[in-house]
Design a protein that fits this description.
Blueprint (H helix, E strand, L loop, with lengths): L1 E6 L2 H16 L5 E4 L6 H14 L7 E4 L1 E3 L10 H8 L11 E2 L8 H12 L6 E4 L21 E4 L2 H7 L13 E4 L2 H5 L3 E6 L5 H9 L17 E6 L8
Parallel strand pairs: 1-10, 2-3, 2-6, 3-5, 6-9, 9-10
Antiparallel strand pairs: 4-8, 7-8
Helix pairs in contact: 1-2
This protein binds fructose -6-phosphate (F6R).
The site of fructose -6-phosphate (F6R) has 14 residues, from loops.
Length: 242
């Protein structure tokens, strides 16, 4: 069963997500699973503000990111490595060696996937932050991805590349075609999951995830099998589930 929170707007959704994150950060050595994209940016801003105001330290925090594009260097302004540094890591006191972002700049992505999964398996993620793609993907697990998948290479759907073209000068041709992504089984190992989904373009995917039949057609529907998922929506993303 999902715990569903419907808020008035993105800022409120970020505050609700932060309340759950704050409790996990009180643990001794928390392990965070982190996402990129627009959905978690407000949460990361609140984590940075809390670090600055209340001194919440990340010295003993370990992080694992969900995914990374293949074919752009990690120094590229749209790599997820860069995204995480700009939106969170550079503004808190987390040691660089505690952060893990899959490596997409490689001639052997399969090997990178195996290495990433091996490292991930040494830990249990206390809280996994997720967004959802308009096609129902979580991380970069596109429709059709097996539910038992571990970290793997994914060819991105055209819809996903179209959605993400906004970060690449609105030019879909500049959006990488493949990514390294944690698999659906990797994500399901997390103890607690929070998903932030806002905006009308997420309403159909949110409906399929919550009310649809569990099916690889909507990768996010696998979350129906997890016993601690909080889905935080704004009114627009929640229109179809009412
Ligand atoms: C990003 C990720 C993706 C995004 C999803 C939604 O690390 O794993 O699944 O969460 O594409 O993206 P936004 O939040 O930009 O709408």
């Amino acid at each position: 069963m999902f715990n569903i929170i419907v808020t008035d707007n993105y800022d409120q959704a970020s505050s609700e997500a932060f309340k759950i994150m704050r409790d996990v950060l009180r643990k001794e050595n928390p392990v965070l699973g982190l996402a990129t994209g627009s959905s978690p940016v407000g949460l990361y801003k609140k984590m940075i503000a809390d670090h600055n105001t209340n001194g919440t330290s990340y010295k003993n925090v370990i992080t694992f990111n969900l995914d990374e594009y293949i074919g752009i260097p990690k120094t590229h302004d749209q790599s997820y490595y860069t995204f995480m540094h700009e939106n969170l890591f550079d503004h808190i006191d987390i040691p660089e060696e505690n952060t893990h972002v899959p490596v997409g700049e490689t001639d052997n992505p399969e090997e990178e996937c195996a290495k990433y999964e091996e490292e991930l398996q040494k830990y249990t993620i206390d809280i996994q932050v997720l967004g959802i793609g308009s096609d129902g993907h979580i991380a970069f697990n596109e429709p059709g991805t097996p539910f038992d998948s571990l970290t793997h290479v994914m060819e991105l759907e055209e819809q996903t590349r179209r959605d993400n073209a906004r970060f690449f000068d609105d030019n879909i041709d500049l959006v990488p075609t493949h990514a390294v992504t944690m698999g659906l089984a990797s994500i399901m190992r997390a103890k607690k999951i929070i998903m932030i989904a806002t905006g009308a373009n997420k309403a159909d995917a949110v409906y399929d995830m919550i009310k649809g039949q569990k099916s690889t057609d909507c990768p996010a529907s696998i979350l129906q099998d997890h016993d601690d998922v909080t889905i935080i929506l704004d009114k627009e993303a929640a229109t179809r589930i009412k």
